[in-house]
Write a structure and sequence with these properties.
Chain A contains 33 helices and 27 strands. Chain A is of the alpha/beta class and 915 residues long. In chain A, helix 17 packs across helix 18 (458-471) and helix 25 packs across helix 27. The longest helix of chain A has 23 residues, at 713-735. Chain A starts with 5 loop residues before the first strand and ends in a 15-residue tail after the last helix. In chain B, the strands form 6 sheets. In chain B, strands 3-2-6-7-1-8 form a 6-stranded parallel beta sheet, with helices on both faces. Chain B has a 6-stranded parallel beta sheet with strand order 11-18-15-12-14-13. In chain B, strands 20-21-22-23-24 form a 5-stranded mixed beta sheet. Chain B is built from 41 helices and 24 strands. Chain B is 46% helix and 13% strand. By secondary structure, chain B is of the alpha/beta class. The chains are: A alpha/beta (915), B alpha/beta (1058). The interface between A and B is large, with 221 and 214 residues. Bound molecules: iron/sulfur cluster. Iron/sulfur cluster (SF4) binds next to helix 24 and helix 32 of chain A. Iron/sulfur cluster (SF4) is lined by residues 632, 634-635, 878, 880, 885-886, 889, 891-892, 895, 897 of chain A.
Chain lengths: 915, 1058
């Protein structure tokens, strides 16, 4: 301030504030955090004087003072003369609108981040009085900004609106008016960078008789230590332990209150979660198992986006669910959300319902289908939920379409949440309460958007609300705590008993110059914006560093030696501070809960490979049981006796099994209509085409019952065509066969081996003109006859069919029905029974193991009996037939194969090539 | 350095420091190129206006950090140390000194701000460009970087496929064709499109130009003709051949001479002259494999569909990126390119950055990619010869091994011959090897001169060998080959352990302990080796080698994560009950989990009947587990999922179940990953998350000394060790993935495209033609990979390989895609003698056996005392939440309240003088303005403002109001005081405080409204609610005897008490 104002020590400052309101003193700070800290310090000062109550000191950030004076004007005769400032979302929306109105919008990925940058540039331009003139703005980016800002400016002018960036200039001319309550003394505290705009404002206040005084935190003589640590993890860990050690010793022997401890973390945003966790673990080692929210003696100055609070995230998901269609995973999260009606009482039922929906939905699900599926008698019952989403669907139909003003959407969203019983049955905790409060504020801000933007559609409103929730940084109100963790900006001007500044490497500090991208750099540099130029930015960071070094009795600066694999040097700004060893910091050891638990238990190893024998021979589930038992006994136990299965994840289209089912259904349909080789031969092209068409229709209809949303529309049409192609290629093979007649189609029959009876479904059995029967199993994936041979056959179903009935079986074969491949693969008693199917002596694998057909069949019997007996006896050993057996198994988590065969047997997890 | 060895390339090194000229430098392994780069950087610093004018581009972040450290060290030495004696050190000192003079003269203050040295990766450079050009880069604002964007590629692919059902979408028909081509397999289509997007930097320019059938087929003609010409030139004149270049006749001719497999025909026997001519056979094979001259209609149809879909896929991807606010590095580089290209003509960086880039240094240029190459072209566009701007590219094409990351060695060759853009580059080759002893250098010279191609081929990525000269004397035992047979992995593993432990006992160069590295091509090669090292009790550090996905502790945490995320995830729940912390037996699991009713395990755990059939021990275990999980489930989605999982794991005793302390770190890696993946306390896609866990790697064991390290050859690039062991040479590389389409560019930049074959059809010659090119490139790269591995060694190199060997001791050639196959011409001979000596072994016995029936679990409940909390007494929670509305609609009332308060304050300050209903009504516009400013919406404005007016007017007309707002003694409005309640400071605001004859008054305004009867009861209720608040006011204001009152202007209500 050019008149060289008086300077004040902090103690004098407090003395003057202690005079109370009569003195009409206002203190302004560069940011809210410092104002708050100063308030607390003043409170401590007052308390140390033995006061229980006192007149609150008027301490606020500069912007707060301007806003207050503006409000004074608003409640005076000046009301008509002052425009109304926009809220942050309103500003954002207006900038976006300005961007959309220009040709640039087309090419941009998204207008929102550009608008956010515009707001920053706009603020900078006003604070530093940069001329927004075309001649000074060369370059595409600068031009674009100029274009947008003139549109923005016009739009606000037309509506008599303004924004925080311009407010000081709007208020200043009215300062003479009595209604604007100016302080008698304005104390400017800890302001490092005085922008021209601020200087003008303060000067104007001075002209109206306000005494201007500057004050800054006192420079303390600190004991400064520098310590180099391995990496950022260790820095955080050590800082936390250091804070814990310091907490134990009060700052002054006579005052019982804990010392003030500050920890500065430069890129707090990127490691907030780790800092939070490490400090919590160190200061309250048992906090995760305490079973309740425990109070922590530290506070992190950085909030999280509101949208990241589970309560709010789910509110947004509920609103999303009210659209025509949502991603399945999002719908699923609503179904399982604890924040809707019935979440506790129907918790189990909803989980079951969700598991079922996963089998039947695609990656996107329409609200109406969801309602239908939830109410379907075939789904697990969750009536409360079904009822709620049905009401939501009705509400959607009744009103959630077309364009409306923002306030109506806000109301509609509110109503949608109410319909779903938001925020649920569980009692909200303190932070959820505050988040909810903030959420209401957000809805109100959404409503208020109608002042700047026109009507919008459901999706636009929903997305706007979502991005507002992501923009709004929220931190549940903190108690007064001794340890403050903060970023660089917040640390300015504060005083501590102990301060630790970490992460000061050469690449992190001083900060790189970061000129605003929308304003030409020379303009910024000429105006003296510190961040715009490497040298002035360095000067600023030097001052900040100096501030740290004098703001506490003990100051520790630290820097990591490594970041991932890179070696790092200390920042040049601290390199000259003598380094000390970690041990010299006086950090006490503290036990971790983990280590305590690790040494608290003893491990035993017991034999447990056998489950109770089966109670009755009959088992539902088909021949797959034998396959599982043969490949790995544990797998059979898990799947067949415990119904152990993983959750499915809806994927686009059908999965291989469903595509297989389609082909099976198709074949069934065709052979229902053509039951002999003669019928096939007799059918002309037209009638064949009709048969194939109808069969494909039927097949699709039958699979569609399970996957209504997936097998629909064009996809179903394509699938229909594919089935037709597959079937006609298949019929070409069948035409070459000697005479046959279908005996059974998709017939179910009980088959028993080794004391286990399963219900086997046989695709097809033909009576052959040459005598005997052929058993045929359609395959749409890989298949090899070798999988029938030897010990523990991996595909035992055909052998089971062959032995299971009373028929005289002369051939078993896979019917390979794939695009590009239509053929039989199998083994027969006599040659030429089926095209491509050979006798034992012609089969590469079979001939090595079996003399003849009877030996093969006999071998099958022995194996199948053994498999059945193993299952019946409860054999559940973790014994995969081959290492790669585990590759396609969904039980590795349960069977613990990784622990039992630590290296490599599990097959999965092979590294990528060359990586 | 041994003085007996004269540096052979001093002249080149000196030339390279000329700051006025541009160079491309081939710097083979061990040639000291980093030093050269630093010297050049310092030399340039001495001549620029601002340090930012020099952009140094490194391949990795680590390399950038290292280079910066070394530049710093050089500057510091020049500032404070005397000039050293050794010639090359003195040179660095001189250059640094000159840079400092410049620094001091121009006030750069380099030594204080490291960031002014623009030494960075190309990704960082792109990001710094896009940050300054939000519009030109089209980002609008800098997105977040996502290193692994596979999930987003998948999402974009799915979005594109969804166009199938959208009649309006212009791509619907093309999606249908594509699906038909792929057998209607949507999952495959998604994967292929996603893979195509992952490589979009390759084709995005190429496909940008319209490609019509005729011009593509014309290119095809040329390619066919070229192959035939090649064969024709080699065909001996004495034998008959088709005339001219009738391609189809030549194909016929080739088939007549070669079998299907590509060997000379036996019937009729091929003349010996032909048989001996391998080049001819190769050429004929190529002719044999030539595709038809024209696309089939089917091919063309699907190719066209793909070509039309590609731009839509890009659009979808941009949409997905924008939606998530993220972008991958490729997108950053594309955006930087766009920004540099500008809308009309190249962008002037001077305008954007306030400086221009005048010098560019690129390290590891052999691993540059197309997009990086483009970027260089753009950055140097408009440069004129001798205009003071220079390019300096350093690399070693023999070490180009990053094809899987899109590196193209051909670009190095192209720049070597033709420069970049308008900049021509003077080529320099370094020859000195300062790293390895002469024995190794000589072996490498001899070996790689044979292994690497004799002739350079730019398109095929073939690089010739360049000899090095050792600067260290030869020592004995430089290179050893170890032969193994028939999959004797155990033997190989044991040998590695032996060699390593012997080597670790040897001192390294310069007396320090010797360093040993085991270098592998694939991580999977290590599965057998690591157990052997452990068995031999050799501590080692493995860098990104051991996948965590398989580790028991991670599996258990994953089970816990899945179980807590979903109560119906049956496998996860059963796994949780079987895990060591609960350790249920099979019998108990069966008792709990079987049965007709479909209960979830969690329900079953509460089912009395089922619990009754569980053994007593099992029940105790179950109950303990249940109690802990019940707490977690009750508090689900309160804290982060990570905290929830970790809390459950701790409470269950997870840490007591691990085998070593290292496992706890692995648990941390998993938990950190979980934390990074979750959103708002839940996982968006459990499946994707589980997939990503497989990509986590164990941290190297830092407690192990760093003298034995295990890593991939790729990771070892740029490092050196005394002893290098390269095992598993016979191992396979990976499979190559199918791609939706392949393309190649002829040397004349003409394009050839082939669509993927349709599902179920035979191989397509056109696709195979282009793929063959790729395969050849891969083969060349294998040779280079070997070179990199071998040249890491300072003193000793051990090569281990395993080949098949029949009973007759005849060694079979290694599998063709193995490194050993490449090396075979050199080392093959060393396999025969051991093959004869070897004893028959049961080599196929697995290394580890499965413990089939074991159950590992905690013996009993854990007892321990939690470590103490920090010394601190938490102040009591002081906020009450009962007054929060459950709907925002109440907000309007709240706003009306604040506006009324504000006006009452003003009126009271005027002591109500001059205030009447009429005056209030005149203020309507102002009131509306204020309500609006507070966020009251249009529709509510009329009601809200009329309520404000009613409230104010009634208080002016109400006698009580008149008294209250009128002149009073010692009146205060909005009186702000601070006080301490229960040890916590609270700031209070008292609406109005004054004194009259009756004494002091403390009054709070309440703008509550009340509909219906029994106003009194309502007011009484309000009094009850606000009594404590006013009590606090009375105490804090130091007027405990004051009368307290609530005033309700809207209701003209009043409650007072003492
Ligand atoms: S993962 Fe392997 S061992 Fe485990 S159940 Fe499946 S097949 Fe058996």
């Amino acid at each position: 301030m050019h008149r060289e104002p008086a300077r004040l020590e902090k103690s004098e400052l407090f003395e003057r504030l202690a005079l109370g309101h009569e003195a009409r003193i206002t203190v302004v700070t560069p940011n809210a955090r410092l104002a708050q800290a100063l308030g607390s310090e003043f409170a401590a000062f007052q308390r140390s004087r033995g006061l229980q109550a006192w007149e609150t000191a008027d301490v606020l950030p500069f912007g707060g003072l301007v806003a207050r004076l503006w409000e004074d004007a608003l409640y005076s005769e000046l009301a008509a003369a002052v425009p109304v400032p926009l809220s942050a979302p309103q500003e954002q929306a207006l900038w976006e609108e300005a961007i959309h109105a220009t040709r640039y919008a087309q090419a941009l990925f998204s207008a929102a981040p550009a608008a956010a940058q515009c707001r920053a540039a706009w603020k900078l331009a006003h604070a530093w009085r940069l001329p927004l003139e075309l001649s000074r703005f060369p370059g595409e980016d600068a031009r674009a900004f100029l274009d947008w800002s003139s549109r923005y400016e016009r739009a606000t002018r037309d509506r008599r609106q303004t924004d925080a960036a311009r407010l000081p200039d709007i208020v200043a001319p009215h300062l003479a008016h009595a209604a604007l309550r100016k302080p008698a003394t304005l104390i400017v505290f800890g302001v490092d960078i005085v922008t021209p705009q601020m200087r003008d404002f303060v000067d104007a206040l001075a002209r109206h008789g306000c005494e201007i005084v500057e004050a800054a935190p006192p420079a303390r003589r600190a004991e400064v230590k520098r310590v180099a640590l391995t990496d950022a993890r260790e820095e955080i860990e050590m800082a936390a332990r250091w804070a814990r050690s310091r907490l134990a010793t009060p700052a002054k022997a006579d005052v019982p209150c804990p010392p003030r401890i500050g920890v500065v973390v430069p890129d707090l945003a990127s490691c907030r979660a780790r800092v939070q966790r490490v400090f919590a673990n160190v200061l309250r080692p048992d906090h995760l198992v305490a079973g309740e929210v425990v109070a922590m003696p530290f506070n992190i100055s950085l909030g999280l986006p509101l949208a990241e609070y589970p309560l709010i995230a789910d509110a947004l998901l509920v609103i999303g669910l009210a659209s025509h269609e949502s991603a399945f995973e999002q719908a699923s999260r609503v179904i399982r959300s604890p924040f809707i009606a019935g979440a506790e009482s129907e918790m189990q039922a909803r989980a079951r319902l969700d598991a079922e929906l996963r089998k039947r939905c695609g990656p996107a699900v329409a609200l109406d289908s969801l309602v239908r599926l939830a109410k379907s008698p075939r789904s697990p019952r969750a009536p409360l939920l079904a009822d709620r989403i049905e009401r939501l669907a009705q509400f959607r139909k009744a009103g959630l379409f077309g364009t409306k003003p923002a306030s109506e959407w806000a109301r509609a969203f509110s109503e949608a949440l109410r319909l779903m019983g938001f925020p649920g049955e569980r009692t909200l905790d303190s932070s959820e309460h505050q988040a909810l409060d903030k959420w209401h504020g957000l809805l109100a801000e959404l409503a208020a958007l109608e002042r700047v933007v026109g009507k919008m559609g459901f999706n636009a409103a929903r997305e706007r609300l979502g991005s507002m929730a992501r923009e709004a940084i929220f931190q549940p109100e903190a108690r007064d705590v001794p340890i403050q963790v903060m970023g660089i900006l917040e640390s300015a001007g504060q005083e501590f008993d102990h301060l630790w500044v970490m992460g000061l490497t050469d690449e992190a500090w001083p900060l790189a110059a970061r000129p605003d991208p929308f304003i030409p750099v020379p303009l910024q540099r000429a105006a003296g914006i510190p961040q715009s130029d490497p040298v002035s930015s360095l000067d600023l960071d030097r001052r900040i560093t100096q501030g740290w070094l004098t703001s506490a009795a003990e100051v520790v600066v630290s820097h990591p030696r490594m970041k991932k694999e890179s070696e790092l040097a200390p920042s040049p700004l601290i390199a000259s501070i003598p380094a000390v060893a970690l041990e010299e910091l006086g950090i006490e050891r503290c036990a971790t809960l983990r280590e305590t638990i690790r040494t608290a238990g003893a491990i035993e190893q017991i034999e447990d490979g056998t489950a109770p024998p089966i109670a009755a021979p009959a088992h539902s589930g088909g021949t797959g049981l034998f396959k599982d038992q043969s490949e790995c006994p544990f797998r059979a136990f898990a799947r067949r006796r415990l119904a152990s299965e993983p959750l499915e994840t809806p994927r686009p289209g059908l999965d291989p099994r469903e595509r297989g089912n389609l082909v099976h259904e198709m074949m069934k349909g065709v052979w229902k209509r053509l039951d002999t080789s003669d019928a096939l031969a007799a059918a002309d092209d037209a009638s064949l085409a009709a048969i194939l068409g109808t069969s494909a229709d039927e097949a699709i209809a039958s699979v569609r019952r399970h996957r209504p949303d997936v097998l629909a529309g064009r996809y179903a049409v394509l699938e229909h065509a594919r089935l037709m192609r597959l079937a006609s290629a298949w019929l070409a093979i069948e035409r070459e066969r000697p005479g046959f007649a279908i005996v059974t189609l998709e017939e179910k029959r009980p088959i028993a081996f080794g004391g286990v009876t399963v219900n086997a479904k046989l695709d097809r059995m033909d009576r052959l003109a040459a005598g005997g029967h052929a058993i045929i199993d359609y395959k749409t994936g890989e298949c090899r006859t070798a999988s029938w041979m030897g010990k523990r056959p991996t595909e035992p179903q055909l052998p089971m069919y062959a032995l299971g009935g009373g028929e005289d079986v002369a051939a078993v074969a896979f019917g390979v029905v794939k695009t590009g491949e239509a053929r039989f693969k199998g083994i027969s008693r006599e040659p030429k029974l089926l095209p491509g199917v050979v006798t034992i002596d012609k089969d590469y694998n079979a001939k090595k193991m079996y003399r003849d057909w009877d030996a093969l069949v006999g071998g099958w019997r022995v194996e199948l009996e053994a498999i059945g007996r193993g299952f019946a006896a409860g054999d559940a050993r973790v014994d995969p037939k081959r290492p790669d057996t585990c590759k396609n198994c969904d039980q590795p988590m349960f069977c613990r194969i990784a622990e039992k065969a630590p290296f490599g047997v599990a097959g999965a997890g092979e590294g990528d090539p060359d990586e | 350095m041994n003085d007996a060895f004269r540096v052979p390339d001093l002249a080149e090194r000196e030339k390279a420091l000329d700051p006025t000229r541009s160079f491309i430098v081939q710097a083979p392994a061990g040639s000291g190129k980093t030093e050269l780069l630093i010297q050049r950087y310092l030399a340039l610093l001495g001549g620029v206006e601002r340090p930012e004018e020099i952009a140094a581009i490194t391949f990795t972040i680590k390399a950038a950090a290292e280079m910066r450290l070394r530049v710093y060290a050089a500057l510091a030495a020049a500032r404070s140390h005397p000039r050293p004696h050794a010639a090359h050190e003195a040179l660095t000192w001189d250059l640094a000194r000159a840079a400092l003079v410049r620094n001091d003269a121009l006030g750069w203050r380099l030594e204080e701000s490291a960031e002014r040295l623009r030494i960075q990766t190309v990704d960082a450079l792109c990001m710094s460009l896009t940050r300054q050009m939000p519009v030109l880069s089209q980002f609008g604002g800098q997105p977040e970087v996502i290193e692994d964007a596979r999930v987003l590629f998948g999402e974009a692919a799915r979005n594109l496929l969804a166009a199938l059902e959208d009649d309006q979408h212009p791509a619907a028909a093309d999606v249908a064709s594509l699906l038909t081509h792929l057998d209607n397999n949507a999952g495959d289509a998604e994967k292929l499109i996603a893979a195509m997007l992952a490589r979009r930097d390759h084709w995005i320019r190429t496909l940008g130009k319209p490609s019509d059938r005729a011009s593509l087929e014309a290119t095809l003609d040329k390619v066919r003709a070229a192959a035939v010409n090649n064969a024709r030139a080699l065909w001996p004149r004495q034998f008959p051949a088709p005339f001219e270049s009738d391609v189809d006749a030549w194909i016929h001719h080739a088939n007549a001479n070669l079998t299907k497999a590509g060997d000379w025909r036996r019937k009729p026997p091929t003349p010996e002259v032909l048989e001996a001519n391998l080049a001819l056979r190769e050429a004929l094979r190529e002719v044999q494999a030539l595709p038809a001259a024209r696309y089939t209609d089917e091919q063309w149809q699907v190719l066209e569909a793909i070509l039309r879909l590609a731009p839509y896929a890009i659009v979808e991807l941009r949409y997905v990126f924008a939606k998530h606010g993220k972008a991958d590095f490729i997108e950053f580089s594309l955006a930087a390119l766009r920004a540099l290209e500008g809308e009309d003509g190249p962008t002037d960086l001077m305008l954007v950055l306030d400086y221009s880039i005048r010098h560019i240094l690129v390290d590891e240029f052999q691993d540059t990619s197309f997009s990086q190459f483009n970027l260089l072209e753009k950055l140097t566009s408009g440069w004129e010869p001798e205009d003071g701007r220079t390019l300096f590219l350093v690399g070693d094409p023999m070490q180009s091994i990053y094809r899987f990351r899109e590196a193209e060695v051909a670009l190095f060759l192209r720049a070597w011959h033709h420069g970049i853009g308008t900049v021509s580059l003077a080529p320099l080759t370094l020859r000195a090897n300062f790293r390895s002893q002469a024995g190794i250098v000589e072996w490498v010279n001899a070996t790689f001169a044979r292994i690497m191609p004799a002739v350079e081929d730019v398109a095929g990525g073939a690089v010739t060998y360049s000899h090095s000269k050792a600067m260290h004397a030869a020592e004995a035992g430089a290179v050893r080959v170890h032969a193994f047979f028939d999959g004797d992995f155990a033997g190989e593993g044991r040998r590695i352990a032996d060699v390593a432990s012997a080597a670790m006992k040897e001192a390294g160069r310069g007396g320090a302990p010797g360093s040993v590295a085991i270098l592998v091509r694939n991580r999977s090669h290590l599965l057998e080796i690591l157990p052997c090292l452990r068995a031999a009790k050799l501590p080692y550090r493995a860098v990104e080698i051991e996948s965590l996905g398989q580790r028991p502790v991670v599996r258990d945490l994953l089970a816990l994560t899945r179980a807590l995320s979903h109560l119906a995830d049956r496998v996860a729940w059963l796994a949780l009950l079987r895990a060591p912390w609960c350790g249920l037996t099979l019998a108990d699991l069966f008792a709990l989990g079987s049965g007709e009713e479909a209960l979830t395990p969690w329900e079953a755990m509460h089912d009395k009947a089922r619990l009754a059939s569980v053994s007593a021990d099992g029940r105790a275990r179950l109950e303990r587990t249940r109690a802990i999980l019940a707490r977690c489930i009750a508090a689900r989605r309160r804290a982060s999922l990570r905290d929830c999982v970790e809390g459950a794991w701790l409470a269950l005793g997870g840490p007591a179940c691990v085998e070593s302390a290292l496992d706890l770190e692995e648990a941390d890696i998993y938990l950190d990953h979980l934390e990074a993946s979750e959103e708002a306390g839940a996982l968006a896609d459990l499946d994707a998350f589980e997939g990503s866990v497989a990509d986590l790697y164990a941290l190297p064991d830092m407690s192990a000394p760093d003298c034995l390290q295990v890593m991939t050859i790729h990771k070892a690039k740029g490092l050196e060790f005394d002893t290098v062991i390269v095992p598993g040479l016979a191992g396979w590389g990976g499979k190559d993935d199918r791609k939706l389409f392949l393309w190649m560019e002829t040397p004349e930049s003409e394009l050839l495209l082939a669509p993927m074959i349709s599902t179920g059809s035979e191989k397509d010659p056109l696709y195979e033609l282009i793929r063959g090119l790729d395969k050849r490139k891969e083969e060349h790269e294998m040779g280079r990979l070997l070179y990199v591995a071998a040249t890491r060694a300072r003193r000793r190199l051990h090569l281990l390989g395993d080949v098949k060997c029949g009973h007759d001791a005849v060694v079979k050639e290694p599998q063709s895609r193995s490194l050993l196959a490449k090396l075979w011409p050199v080392v093959g001979g060393e396999f025969a003698p051991p093959a004869e000596r070897r004893a028959p072994s049961n080599a196929n016995a697995p290394v580890a056996t499965v413990r089939q029936a074991e159950l590992r679990r905690l013996k009993g409940p854990l007892t321990y005392e939690s470590p103490a909390a920090a010394a601190w007494n938490a102040p009591a929670e002081t906020r009450a939440y009962d007054d929060i509305e459950f709907s925002w609609v109440g907000d309007t009332a709240r706003r009306v309240g604040s506006v009324v308060h504000r006006w009452l304050q003003r009126i009271a300050e005027d002591e109500a003088k001059g205030w009447t209903r009429t005056r209030i009504e005149r203020e309507l516009p102002a009131i509306m303005n204020e309500l609006t400013a507070r966020g009251v919406v249009e529709g509510d404005l009329a009601t809200a403002s009329s309520r404000v007016i009613t409230a104010l007017a009634s208080s002016l007309e109400d006698p009580r109001g008149k008294w209250l707002l009128g002149p009073q003694r010692n009146a205060r409005n909005e009186y702000r005081i601070s006080t301490v309640i229960d040890g916590v400071r609270r700031d209070l605001v008292i609406d109005r405080m004054f004194e009259d004859l009756a004494g002091a008054w403390i009054v709070d305004y309440k703008t509550s409204s009340h509909e219906g009867a029994d106003l009194d009861r309502f007011l009484a209720g309000e009094e009850g609610r606000y009594r404590p608040q006013l009590e606090r006011y009375a105490t804090a204001s130091g007027k405990p005897g004051a009368r307290r009152a609530l005033y309700f202007p809207l209701l003209k209500g009043w409650r007072e008490w003492a």
